Amino acid sequence: MRTFCCAGVLFLVCLTTIAFCDKQWWQKAVIYQIYPRSFKDSNGDGIGDLNGITQGLQHVKDAGIETIWLSPIYKSPMYDFGYDISNFKEIQPEYGTMQDFDNLMTESKRLGIRVVLDFVPNHGSNESDWFDLSANRTRGYENYFIWADGKPDPNNPNKVLPPSNWLSAFRGSGWEYNAIRKQFYFHQFAIAQPDLNYRDPLLVEEMKNVLRFWLDKGVAGFRVDAIPHLFEIDPKDFGGKYPDEPRANFIDKVPEEFDYLDHIYTQNQEPTYDMVYQWRDLLDSYEKKDGMPRVMLTEAYTPVKLTMRYYGNATHNGSHLPFNFEFLRGITKDSDARDIKFIIDKWMTYMPLGRTANWVNGNHDNNRMASRHGIERADIMNMLALVLPGVALTYQGEELAMTDGELTWEETKDPAACNTNDPINYYKSSRDPARTPFHWDDSANAGFTTGNFTWLPLAKNYKELNLKVQIAAPKSHYKFYKDIVALKKEKVLVEGDLESKALTNDVLALMRYLPNEKTVVAIANLSPKDSTISLDSFRVLPSTMKVYASSLNSKFEKGSTVQTSNLTLSPYDAIVLST
Ligand code: GLC
To answer: Binning pLDDT at 50, 70 and 90, where does residue 5 land?
Structure first.
C-alpha cells in the first residue's frame, strides 16, 4: 500500500483512502503503563526506581510490547505520589538521576521500546520555586497559579472565607489560604497541588517548554493528566469573582465530597480543547523534523461526547488517543455479552471517522482489572482489548491477572483515602490496592526489591501469582496475553474490519476480517456454565478453523482444529481462532 500511496499520480486517491494506508506505530500499539514506584526497585530501599525499570524492560520486550508509559518520575514531595510536581524538568531523587533516565532511554532504544512520559499540566506543587515566586508576586510568576481574595466572614471580621464553594477531588474546599500572598489558591486535587493558570501566556509557554525538554531527550510522547480540570471560568466574565457551583444530582453525597457539586465552572471549559490542539501542533512539529510521529494520550473521565472532542475536529488534530474509559468503567463483572458489545459499539459509534480507537483495561487509579472483573474473566478482558482495532492499554501486572492488594488503614498512603479520615470506609476511595508492587517471582518481596521493606505491602497471592511461575507453566494468563500481543502485529488485526456479535446473552464473538488475509475470531464465554454456540452467522467463515490461543482454563488446545458450527465453551472460556 505504501508504494501505491507514494506513486505521485495516485496521491489524492491515497488521501481519500487514508484509513487503509500503512498504520503509524501508535495506531497499532500495545501501551504498557509502568507505575515507577511499584515496578522494580534496584537499590533495596523498597521503592521502585528508574534503574529498576531499565532492568525490567526485558520483560516488556519478551511480552512483545514496544511502548511504555511511565507515571510521573519528576521531582515531587510525593503527597500524590508524583502527581504533585515541584520541578517538571528534574528527576525525583528516590527514583534516580537524569543519567539513570538517559540510560533508560538508551536501553529502551536498544530493545526497540518507545517511552511515553506523563505530563501533568493542571497543577504543580506548593513546595516549588514557581509557587514561592508566585506567592511573593515575583515579576513574571504572579499569575502562574489561580489566586483569589477571600470573602469577608460575616461572623468574624478578622477572618476571610474561601472565594467560592469549589471543592477538591480529594475532599473538602478546593481553596487554601496562603499567608505570604494573603490570598487563596485553588487546588482541584490535594492542597499540595495548586492549579496552574492557563490564562497566563507565560505559564502556557513555560509548560510547552516542559514538553520540548523531554521531547529533546527522545521521548515518544505524553499521557496528559486530568485534562478536564485544566481551565476554570474567567473571573472577568463574572464581575471579577469566582461564582459558586450548583449542587449535583447525587443525593448520597456529603458536602465535602467532590460529586456534591456540579462542576460547571471548573471542568470541561471551552479553552481546554484549544490547548490540547496547541500541544498536538507542538508534537507534530517534532514529527516534521525527523518523520517520527509523537503521540498524545489524554486522561478525561467525561461523558463520551466530550471525550471525543479531544480527538480534534475538521480543522485541528488533538489527542491521538483520548483514553477509552467507557471500556474501563462501563464493563463490570456482571456485564454479559450484550452489555460488552454495547460498550464496544458505543466507542466505535461516537469516535470521529478516521481516528484510532483504544481499549483501557486499568490504570493506577482504579482497582485492578482481575479484581474488578473476577480473575476468571481476566483472560477475556485482555483478549478483547488486544483483538479490538486500535490500541490496547495494559497496566503493569494485568498480563499476569494480578489482583488488588489489601491494605489496612494504617498502611494506607493514597491521599484520596487518607483524606476520608475514615478507618472503616477508607478502602472505597483508596487507589493503593492497584499500586502494590509488581510480582516478579515467588522469592521474598516477590523479587520487587532486594531490601526487606516495600513502600506498600505486597498482594498476598504473590507466591502463586507471579511472572516466573507463569513463564514456567505450560499455560498461564501471561502466555495467553503474549500470544495475542504477537497476533496483534499481523495485518488482519492492524487493518481488518471488526464485526462483533452477542451470539447468546453469554457469548461474545469478535471477528476481524481483511480480504486476502487470514480471518481471526475471538470468542468469550462470560458465563460460569458451558455454552454451545455456532459461528455460522458470520457468513464468511469456513467450516473449520484453528485454535490460535486459548485461556488458562480452556479445554481447547492451541493448534487444534474446530468445527465453527458447533463449539462448546467451558466457563469463562476465551479463545482466539484463525483461518
Ligand atoms: C490523575 C492521575 C491521578 C492523580 C490525579 C491528580 O487522575 O491519574 O493519579 O491523583 O490526576 O494529578
So the answer is: very low
